[in-house]
Amino acid sequence: MELPEEIRERFRRHGRAGGRRRAERMAPADRRAVARRAATVRWTRARFGASSFEELGLPGGELVDAGLEALAAEQVTPEALAVSLAAPRLRREGVPVGFVLEDPERRLFDLLARRDGDLAHARYNAWLRRLASFADGCRLARLPSARAS
Q: End-to-end alpha-carbon separation of the chain, Å?
């Protein structure tokens, strides 16, 4: 069922007003995180045709989505460290990586060593392989108009 344009415009106005009220109640850091995440989703949709990399079915897409979300909120997570580590390659493939964490290689390994003990090296290498597979998949998944740029 198609709604009349007048009703659709009322929904848009109501949505904007609700969003403004919600933003006024949020802390500035939370507002920035929401804005960064929304910008990432818009960029990803325009570049790849989907709002998330997991939705595209790319290997490691869930890892990159979680990393981008954590980076938007300036949180230190294994996913955020992995995305920060691979940021130059991901940017070349069209992934909107803005903010990155400092010294991601050492910090990711240290975090994995605390969590996984003797398996840290194997886990670290597995994370790197997943990111490389993801970046390779990104090259193929970009929309034709995005490849020209």
A: 38
pLDDT in tens, 121-138: 999 999 999 999 999 988
DSSP 68-132: HHHHHTT---HHHHHHHHTHHHHHHTT----S--SSHHHHHHHHHHHHHGGGHHHHHHHHHHHHH
Q: Which of 94, 72, 78, 74 is nearest to 130 (CA)?
A: 78
Q: Which two tokens stand for residue 9?
A: 């415009």
The residue type of 25 is R
Neighbours of 8 (CB within 10 A): 11
Task: Return the domain boundaries, the chain.
Answer: 27-147
**The model's pTM:** 0.75
Nearest to 130 by CA among 78, 58, 34, 51: 58
Question: Average pLDDT of 2-24?
Answer: 77
What confidence category does residue 149 fall into, taking pLDDT thresholds of 50, 70 and 90? low
pLDDT of residue 146 exceeding 70: no
The contacts of residue 23 (CB under 8 Å, 6+ apart) are 31, 34
